[in-house]
Records
---
Amino acid sequence: AKETGKGTFVIFGEALQQHFDERMIIENQLRNVIANDELSLHYQPLIDLGTGENWGFEALIRWNSPVLGFVSPLSFIKIAEDSRLIVPIGEWVLRESCGFIKGLQEQGYKNYHISVNISVVQLMMDDFTDMVLKILRDTGLSPQYLELEITESIFMESFEEISKKLEFLKHKGIGIALDDFGTGYSSLSYLTQLPITTLKIDKSFIDGIDAADNRSLASSIITMGHDMGLYVTAEGVETAEQLAFLERTKCDKIQGYFISRPIPGHEVVDWVKERVG
Ligand code: C2E
Ligand code: CA
Ligand code: CA
Ligand code: CA
């Protein structure tokens, strides 16, 4: 405990101090990541279970800092959001990944899609929809090949405003996936009001497939999604058993280590060629 000027006491343990120091260092180092070219993207394949074909990829950010080494997005995305640095970083991710998938299309992989994680902080920006449309124009990617992944945290912000933007983009042909589905706090009645095209079931439910008890949870989500006219994607698929179950329950798309880990951009074409054989 530490005495403050006014004679009150605050608990300021060493661990807490360390936590704040670490956040500050990460935030400072994040400021120049774009200018210094420290970011890259890995691409994790998504398989369409209906056709067995590669639907495309989810773009996942990677940060190799000269000061901190490799930093996981799990430890810097929240800090980037709180400091609003996620706005330029998220724009970079979108531009880079749309350009990447357009490049693949031009090499003959015509139907490949790209799915991109979007922070609620980005969605709150007035120019968000303009920014997305401009990147599609600049890269030449058609809107139907882009999917945006949003989370239920949008329910904590101005829902009406964000809904309007998503509705607009959906009308342009862009897919909207609700990521980490099942872990948040959205009521089902809210869900029906959301302009989404896909439910992305969280990995925790896919892990649950291994236990008979929890299996019904995953299949209920798939059935419910389909009843609502949505596609359903499963993330974090790690075993043949999980894949077989998801095939039986008519899940639309899967993603996970069982298919492939996220792949550095320059290795993607090799992976694709190897899979097709
Ligand atoms: P997410 O959107 O839920 O992405 C899935 C995460 O699970 C990724 O972790 C991926 O590498 C990992 N994963 C995929 N398949 C498996 C599997 O079979 N088993 C296991 N154990 N893990 C699997 P990653 O790349 O570390 O990203 C973590 C989170 O960081 C993402 O979770 C997402 O919320 C966020 N993130 C990543 N890139 C971006 C980005 O460009 N923008 C924003 N706003 N967030 C991002
Ligand atoms: Ca995601
Ligand atoms: Ca997520
Ligand atoms: Ca997840």
Note: The chain has a mean pLDDT of 92.
---
Amino acid sequence: MSSTIESVLHENRHFPPSAEFAAKARVSGMEAYHALCRQAAEDYEGFWAGLARERLSWKRPFTQVLDESNAPFYSWFADGELNVSYNCLDRHLPELANKLAIIFESDNGTVTRVTYAELHRKVCQLANGLKSLGITKGDRVLVYMPMSIEAVVAMQACARIGAIHSVVFGGFSAKSVNERIIDAKARLVITANSGVRGGKIVALKDTVDEALAMGGCESVERVVVFKRVLHEDGPWTLGRDIWWHDLVAKQPEVCEPTWVLADDPLFILYTSGSTGKPKGVQHSSAGYLLGAVNSMLWTFDYKPDDVFWCTADVGWITGHTYVAYGPLAVGATQVIFEGVPTYPDAGRFWKMIEEHRVTTFYTAPTAIRSLIKLGGELPKQYNLSSLRLLGSVGEPINPEAWIWYHEVVGGGRCPIVDTWWQTETGGHMITPLPGAVATKPGSCTFPLPGIMADVVDEAGEPVELGKGGILVIKRPFPSQVRTLWGDPERFKKSYFPEEFNGKYYLAGDSANRDAEGYFWIMGRIDDVLNVSGHRLGTMEIESALVANPQVAEAAVVGRPDAIKGESVVAFVVLKGARPSGAEAKALVAELRDWVAKEIGAIAKPDDIRFGDNLPKTRSGKIMRRLLRAIAKGESITQDTSTLENPAILTQLQEAN
Ligand code: WTA
């Protein structure tokens, strides 16, 4: 990462929006952006209330705006009533019934299209099906689905009846599914018999079976199974498992939405934090949806004839906000893709952009970097002239990748919105408004109107421009996390620490503002890694390793990686003797698979090194900065005088 940061800090090229783009943009020019920011600063509540009235459809209008009486458990629009699925579907039907809502392309290239009227019908039927199984408002439903129209239908159907979904990324293991079911006490699981990615079958239902068999899942009454592929299915548990097509077959095509209060939870999404246990980030209905709509309009400058494509999986926050909710809430046509960017070859994204005439393309720097490596010239073979706007999300984008994205994919004419935000913020926070802000490669530029972001020191005092510090949001905003499911204390401690009087939202990132006030994100300040844009807790991987009977102790650190941003390096102390040669190699493979089973393949360490012990201070604290240096292959220049066992450094440097 340090080389990226170096190049980022010396980056000073400006890319203002073209006059043509700016002329048509919803927010055109810096004056218009500043005017919105001023409005928010002068009348904070009035600003948000105005947007919430204008951009959301309410069953019962709210009379309260921000309630800070139980800070930091902030409440927005508390007495208003609405339904998120109504906002995403029903309200468009008078005008957009026959507009395409989703263009779904499967792994093997089959394309399925659904209109708003058809999507509405599918959601209503599943919602009625869920009701027939006794699912009601407030119940938790775990969704473990491949990328598909049905994944969105499942989420929308939950929203329609006020059930709280907890989507788990299809790459997570049975153990992870099990833990999430237990934590949320899910009553129902929605899955598919399989998914297909890169030509390979992913047996989701088998994983759900395994998760349920691990115990502790007594809360689960039924498992709804979508038949995605025709193949011989695994065991069927009578009375528990039910095919999706059977469930919806005779259901009415209309389902009256269940009206919920603005702050009633829409979903829980588990994400990694600094401790071993993933946190169940709980989002509201109205505030979250407002964040999704605002960013569709501001960041993506949404236009009715756009074809929007966000490549994220619905298992992550990006797939929640910019696949399952945001595009539908504004009535957009969007592309959903089942597969992977490299199958059947590295031209897949570009081919799909050409075929579906995509106008707005939103992906992660990791994907961009790997596609540059696999075929930097490939985009030129496709007609990408439909594109008008590009987006980046999930991790810092290095200027080299930015410039390639801009030139080769965007033909030099499309603004790039580098969007900084988090699972906890629900929607974009710091990002260019493409018709206003001159972008700089590697900077997420300025906060959206109404987002009071700042960079402060340890005491919470703003730092001078040009000096790095801690990224905070100084005022509550509608789309922010409401609490951590079942753990309000951890919510307070994680995000509103005492150091800042419990007032500032602590993002967990460090940042720098340059002389012109542009924000540059420098990376996490906690023990969270960002591997291919995915959040992983070092403690989470350590706990997984230590759960192996052969492992006595483990420490995990990140190492800069040219493609993935960061890779996972684990230092492991075994209960038995330290292995070498072929034996060590075999154990490395075994432990990698072990982590994949405990968490998921995304968490597999890239490098595992065995030591007789770990570098510790005399008080027993593992010195991670030394491990980070060893992982990078750097010579150790840091002070090691407080180290209990200096000889271990040489051993770990030489290991494997
Ligand atoms: C990082 C993903 C730099 C950051 C939406 C944040 C970024 C974490 C950017 C959240 C960006 C996300 N530039 N860093 N544009 N976007 N991050 O919860 O460290 O999976 O705290 O949400 O990703 O990851 P999460």
Note: Residues 532-653 form a domain with the GMP Synthetase; Chain A, domain 3 fold (CATH 3.30.300.30).
